[in-house]
Task: inverse folding
């Protein structure tokens, strides 16, 4: 199984430490009753509302990881591993 066949898995592996650090930051925000907000420009002012996206989804988007493609790659890896396991028995 070559990493080049699994670009999303490879990318996730490369950013794993950075992702963990940012996840800790998101947890700290929540523990301190802080939130990341999004703005909506109204005619005369901006309105702010807490961002409701799951933090893991935000981080995957930030790092450019396509979650659907990542899942496909994981399923392909599992299928290949099962095939190898059957060949050994």
Result:
């Amino acid at each position: 199984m070559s990493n080049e066949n699994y670009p999303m898995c490879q990318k996730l592996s490369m950013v794993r430490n950075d992702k963990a650090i940012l996840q800790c930051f998101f947890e700290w925000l929540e523990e301190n009753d802080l939130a990341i907000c999004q703005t909506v420009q109204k005619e005369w002012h901006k309105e702010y509302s807490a961002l409701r996206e799951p933090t893991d989804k935000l981080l995957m988007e930030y790092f450019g990881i396509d979650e659907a493609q990542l899942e496909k790659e994981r399923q392909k890896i599992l299928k290949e591993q099962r095939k190898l396991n059957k060949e050994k028995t």
Notes: The chain is about 60% helix and 10% strand. The two ends are 20 Å apart (CA to CA).
